[in-house]
Amino acid sequence: MDLSKTLGSISAYFFRKPAYRRPNIGDDLRQIVQSEDFENKTKATAPFLVAGILAWPIYWIYRGTEWHKYHVLSGQNHGAADTYDRYYVFLKIKLINYTYTKD
Q1: How far apart are CA 17 and CA 21, in angstroms?
Q2: Which residue from 19, 64, 72, 78 has the least number of CB within 10 angstroms?
Q3: Do the Cβ atoms of 33 and 41 come closer than 8 Å?
Q4: Is residue 90 domain-resident?
Q5: Helix, strand, coil percentages for the chain (3-state, nearest 5)
Q6: Is residue 35 part of a domain?
Q7: Most confidently modeled of 43-47, 73-77, 91-95?
Q8: Is residue 65 domain-resident?
Q9: What is the DSSP track for 33-78?
Q10: How many domains, in total, are found in the chain?
Q11: 19-69 pLDDT per residue, tens
């Protein structure tokens, strides 16, 4: 009886299903970030990382200010100023046509 109990516990140990362990992504990430290899590579690429992080926001802020600088003042806002500019151009064209076709 003692031998069968021992064999049963041994077979249960070797043929058991492994318990499902949920992946711990935070712990895995911590191990990667705190590794010496990661720190060395981060120190080597720090200027490029900072430039990359700042590049897109600065670029889009510049694009936004540039767009408003030229488009609002030139009548591209489709408001009253735009209508006035179109009417002014229309009158200029009419005047030019009138002066050339007056003969």
Answers
A1: 12
A2: 19
A3: no
A4: yes
A5: 75, 0, 25
A6: no
A7: 43-47
A8: yes
A9: HTSHHHHHHHHHHHHHHHHHHHHHHHHHHHHHHHHHHHHTTTTTT-
A10: 1
A11: 777 888 989 999 999 999 999 999 999 999 888 888 888 888 887 776 666
